[in-house]
Amino acid sequence: MVVLTSIAFLLAVFVGGWLVLRMPAGAYSHDKPQRFHEGEVSRLGGVALVVALVLAWLVGAGLDGWLLQLNLHLPLKTVLLAALALVPAMVTGLIEDLTQRVSVRRRMLATLMSGGLACWALDLSINRMGIGGLDAWLQAWPWLGIGLAVLAITGLPHAFNIIDGYNGLAGVVVTLIALALAHVALQVGDRAVAALMMALVGATAGFLFWNYPRGQLFAGDAGAYLWGGVVAVGAIMLVQRNPQVSPWFPVLLLMYPVWETLFSIYRKAARGHSPGLADALHFHQLIFRRLVKGVFHDGRVRHLLIRNNRTSPYLWGFSALTVMPAVLFWKSTLALMLCCALFAILYVLAYLAIVRFKIPHWLRH
Q: How far from the centroid of its chain's Cα atoms is residue 27's Cα?
């Protein structure tokens, strides 16, 4: 696992550095509500991520048992099919990163195509939820489980795209989630899923080398779609192949980006706005404006960069509230469900407190 992770890390650092030095940043409209940086920064970090991840998968699958005894149990066919399934989402995300002219509907259609391809090629299905009546339906109607899997792979890339707003935020959250998936995969002896996730950890760490704290490279839509797609596929494979893992383990693990998305849809619908309309009222954006105070005054660019960087640790800690109990209770469906409900309540209370300026004194400092 160390070799695979190191290969992915070094590839991401190298390709990311090339993008920073050689590729033009491209214009990113200053009137975008989700823009919280100064200057023009390349949004092609997804290229570094996909090159590093896919090459690491291919090298790991190719060298395992031939040149190096990596014991990854990672079939080359699985790697190739997973990579091909990502193509529609990645290409569409990359076009959006370069042009900012791809509609939300078309991007959703692209991730839907990737979800369908992944489920078809890798035979993915959510065949149990740990709830008696629902599990009976899933067993009676297999197409329902396939539909849920497609929905998960379609939606999760957009969930990660929503939380990808500040330097290091989405990258560290993905790293924590992938490490948790790899840990549980190793606990149950599923080294193939662990290898897929550890390669993602390495590639993301290499991207973060350029992204945090300096903000020299952004993941863009392509990067967020890659993160969401790979994590969704890995989570579904882990639960589907290992009955001892509760199906609510990945639900709690992904509760932060998923609940942020669901709450955002509700919030916009309640105000009569389209769910696809970008705004600046996401949880991480409120923390940036209401909690993270200006700490430098020697120039707007440096001032904004420092505030940007200081926002992410708040959300890393918030995400850890789901990752830690998920790892502790990965076998217990009841405990995981209770933790999901508790996090949802905590999120809403925290959001309302920030909106109403009722923020605890200790959190302000």
A: 25
